[in-house]
């Protein structure tokens, strides 16, 4: 029985999966995987060699790779003879299904044996080094091993969470089924509008819709993007939609009117800091003279990361007199930002390097003329320091300035709203809901 026949014989199934047979050098010229579409749901998470193999298949043995152990040692420990262990793995290596130099400790390997005890013979090996994928090496009647790659049929579903914040958005979202990455993404959307330490209050409401990739049995394979983020609270009432404009391809979040969440510069290029000294005249803590303080000070523990306030090019990153370790970034339209008293610079930060908004450029310290760990932050326009806190900064992109792009956005926005409303109709209470994309309930 050929492998293909074996696999095709796997019936009793409902949806379509794609399966890749990897040609073996002895019998196939093609080394590239050949996609075979079957009318079968091969949920990778449940597929085992037993399901694939002949019914008299015997014993399954399982082990996880230990640190510094090689795969061949593991397969031998499971009871395969040296030659079978080597041949079964060589088939996987030659087909590029497993890179022997990059096998993570902890990788689970299943081995299937025919026969008993000492005389048991390795029939197949299987492992999964990536969600949604199952790799096998299967003994053929001639004693050779054939590599197989089985891919679960996956699809994105939208998940919606609406909740009232009791403790934090993080805890509330996790308790509703979101994962760390979605909460981080959600917070990033609001980074320009909100200080999460100060501006979130118990009783505020939030909503997020995110994609999740699942196999046909609904098992989680991986998380996808947040596509909608909204807060309805004391400090802010705002909703953002994920959208990639067709002209510049820069994915961002846009509010109902098509204004980007991302602004030109961040007001507070540091998390969790306390504003300790404003721009303006004050008695200098070291010299004692009354002089203009040309920046804003944020007190924060030594080592707290400092972010690039906007996209730009590093003009200098060096020791600079009383400023201590100092970074200055040049942005568009005559704007610059400067960061002083750093403990040290971020990885790879040096003059001439381009940075993106949010990149770590250094860490809070107390170098130069400084009385304690803080970030001294300056915004300059055409070389002159201005008050960053009261400055009306240029906003991010406004889609209303590009009518065609705005029309694209409005379609995407309507699609996301339809998902949300669909979810509401299906929802029991306000808990999280899986929404099948493609359902198009009446537009709001
Ligand atoms: Zn200062």
TrEMBL record:
Keywords: Hydrolase, Metal-binding, Metalloprotease, Protease, Zinc
GO molecular function ontology, one term from the record: metal ion binding
GO BP, one annotated term: proteolysis
Matching SUPFAM superfamilies: Duplicated hybrid motif (SSF51261)
Source domain of life: Bacteria
The M23ase beta-sheet core domain, residue ranges: 292-387
Cofactors, names only: Zn(2+)
Protein name: M23 family peptidase
Record organism: Henriciella mobilis
